[in-house]
From TrEMBL:
GO terms for molecular function: ubiquitin protein ligase activity; zinc ion binding. Keywords: Metal-binding, Zinc, Zinc-finger. SUPFAM superfamilies: TRAF domain-like. It comes from the Eukaryota. Residues 1-34 form the SIAH-type domain. Pfam families: Sina_TRAF, Sina_ZnF. It comes from Aegilops tauschii subsp. strangulata (Goatgrass). This is SIAH-type domain-containing protein. One of its GO terms (biological process) is ubiquitin-dependent protein catabolic process. One of its GO terms (cellular component) is cytoplasm.
Length: 171
């Protein structure tokens, strides 16, 4: 439980045994996993899947944001919640839990006159992506709503997720 222990690689697509400090992991994610790297505190991402009815468990490419001098990981995946297929987006802070509490984020998805919004505090990468996902601590979208937001004939997933990260003011 030492707060100075190395961090585990936050990449969710496969079990990666790499550990290290945050600068080392950022380089590892960029060079070895080829993740998307972005600067800025707002984002607008599209997630597309040609046959969403075949998606039972899927993880899209991790995106890393550099914002306020810190790094954040945006996750998006599909999984079964009981018998219901769902999609989930959430943000993790690349640092410890105490530092993560200094930040908040929002995620939004919508179309056709409807909108869903999630707002919360990012979890630390000390919590595995599976732990965050299994606690449903993020924007959870049922497949029927995801297809509604995708428009068209409901045969293709085309979600646009927008979000922003901000620093909490200390009182």
């Amino acid at each position: 439980m030492c707060s100075f222990r190395p961090y585990s690689c936050p990449y969710a697509g496969s079990e990666c045994s790499v550990t290290g400090d945050i600068p080392y992991l950022v380089n590892h994610l960029r060079d070895d996993h080829k993740v998307d790297m972005h600067s800025g505190c707002t984002f607008n991402h599209r997630y597309v899947k040609s046959n969403p009815r075949e998606v039972e468990n899927a993880t899209w490419m991790l995106t890393v944001f550099h914002c306020f001098g810190q790094y954040f990981c945006l996750h998006f995946e599909a999984f079964q919640l009981g018998m219901a297929p769902v999609y989930m987006a959430f943000l993790r802070f690349m640092g410890d839990e105490n530092e993560a509490r200094n930040y908040s984020y929002s995620l939004e998805v919508g179309a056709n006159g409807r909108k869903m919004v999630w707002e919360g505090t990012p979890r630390s990468v000390r919590d595995s992506h599976r732990k965050v996902r299994d606690s449903h601590d993020g924007l959870l979208i049922q497949r029927n709503m995801a297809l509604f937001f995708s428009g068209g004939d409901r045969k293709e997933l085309k979600l646009r997720i927008t979000g922003r990260i901000w620093k909490e003011t200390q009182t």
